[in-house]
Design a protein that fits this description.
3-stranded antiparallel sheet, 10 helices, alpha/beta, 261 residues, 7-stranded parallel sheet, 40% helix, single chain
């Protein structure tokens, strides 16, 4: 992870370089260290250090002389896909969270990057989550505290699900619950591919004044099999600027607040 004590400019440069590396790997799947060095305009030693840091985050796999993306079916692997878009979305969402406040964060790659943004820049924030991945992802930070909700552990998604999530979440009431989505159906809203995860989101939503969906624009028009059905909840979306005008009008019609990152 990038240490918070590094100079601000170096942190920004490292972040930009990380994003470029991940975008290249997303596009080409496998890139040689020498090629990365040439394209980024830095030494191979610097590239190897960057790759080591990305591998420690579970985003890439380093081999002799080249790098590949991590397993795309793993939460860490999904972080690499559209990394820069997701990070912009995460930063926009992080601006909603006041220092010293408590926020609920569900699983997903945008949500993990939100947690990372809070861990890097927030002060005294408590993250309440059902994601074991997120709890581990920000464990190095002293800027945030993490409360992990109990439940049955799903190994692939690394989240807690089941009735115990509802019991634990009921002990809190927060301004924001941040969630991901597998798709969005017009007139229905966000969807999930997993019944148990969808139910966990509904349980957590009962303890939040507002639900904020963090997602890339390409998810609109895709669909998971399970509608979230967050009836009666104030709903907003943070997404990227590729969202087309038709979807923008649809969200406005449905009373969903929209923020473009």
């Amino acid at each position: 992870m990038i240490a918070c004590t590094l100079p601000r400019k170096l942190v920004c440069d490292m972040g930009k370089r990380d994003g470029k590396i991940l975008e290249m790997l997303t596009s080409e799947r496998r890139v040689e260290v020498a090629t990365l060095s040439q394209r980024l305009g830095v030494s191979e030693v610097t590239v190897r250090k960057d790759l080591d840091a990305l591998q420690a985050k579970g985003l890439v796999v380093r081999e002799h002389g080249f790098a590949t993306l991590s397993n795309p079916n793993d939460v860490g692997g999904r972080l690499a896909y559209h990394y820069e878009k997701k990070r912009r979305i995460a930063r926009a969402a992080a601006a909603l969270v006041a220092d010293g406040s408590t926020a609920m964060v569900e699983s997903g790659s945008c949500c993990a990057l939100l947690a990372r943004e809070l861990a890097n820049a927030a002060s005294g924030v408590t993250i309440v989550t059902n994601s074991a991945f997120i709890a581990s992802y920000v464990r190095d930070s002293t800027r945030v505290d993490v409360t992990l909700l109990g439940g049955a552990f799903q190994r692939d998604s690394q989240v807690m699900v089941g009735p115990l999530v509802r019991t634990c979440a009921a002990e809190f009431y927060v301004d924001y619950l941040f969630i991901g989505t597998d798709g969005w159906i017009e007139g229905v809203g966000p969807t999930n591919a997993d019944q148990m995860r969808a139910d966990a989101v509904r349980s957590m939503a009962e303890s939040a004044a507002q639900v904020v969906v963090l997602t890339e624009s390409e998810k609109f028009g895709q669909r998971g099999a399970i509608p979230m059905r967050l009836v009666g909840k104030r709903l907003s979306v943070v997404t990227d600027d590729a969202l087309d005008e038709g979807w923008r009008k649809s969200l406005e019609h449905d009373g969903v607040a929209l923020s473009i990152a």
